[in-house]
TrEMBL record:
Residues 34-43 have a biased composition (Polar residues). Residues 59-151 form the Cytochrome c domain. Signal peptide: none annotated. Residues 32-59 are annotated as: Disordered. This is Cytochrome c. It comes from the Bacteria. Keywords: Heme, Iron, Metal-binding. GO terms for molecular function: electron transfer activity; heme binding; metal ion binding.
């Protein structure tokens, strides 16, 4: 019986997401969020200048993707930033400001790797972005490599 209830909820949620005019379908419509302005606190100058020590190779990209989609705790990046990194995650409709759109090349090229590092490590004040202080440097740089790949795919 429990499985039937869960399947019913999934079916109804899916139907609402695709039926025009429902609140859920409206939330999932793409919004014009490129370029994206933000008044994010700037990282300290020594962090701002940081660049990834990792080689740009498929292994690091894969590990960054797994972090973004599955392993990041307290919450995986996809729930806010979306599976495609476009800022359209399942939780994004309830957020102000909306999550960063990583596929927007014009926005992402203005953000240094050091700034991304700082935001991932410390969160972003005035947004829903939590800190990931427990991430090792290697994990943060793998995640940044994956994030950078999304802007290239989105252009």
């Amino acid at each position: 019986m429990r499985i039937l209830n869960i399947l019913s909820i999934v079916f109804i949620g899916t139907a609402l997401a695709i039926i025009p005019g429902t609140a859920v379908s409206e939330d999932l419509k793409p919004i014009e969020n490129c370029p994206q302005s933000r008044s994010t606190k700037t990282a300290p100058s020594d962090v701002l200048k940081k660049t990834s020590p990792l080689r740009n190779e498929p292994r690091n990209l894969r590990k960054g993707k797994v972090l973004a989609h599955v392993k990041a705790k307290p919450i995986a990046c996809k729930h806010c930033h979306g599976m495609n990194g476009d800022g359209m995650g399942a939780m994004s409709p309830n957020m102000a400001p909306k999550p960063r759109n990583f596929t927007c090349e014009s926005t992402m090229k203005k953000i240094s790797d050091g700034q991304l590092y700082w935001i991932i490590k410390n969160g972003s004040e005035g947004t829903s972005m939590p800190p990931y202080k427990h991430f090792s440097d290697e994990k943060i740089w793998q995640l940044i490599q994956y994030i950078r790949s999304l802007a290239k795919q989105g252009s």
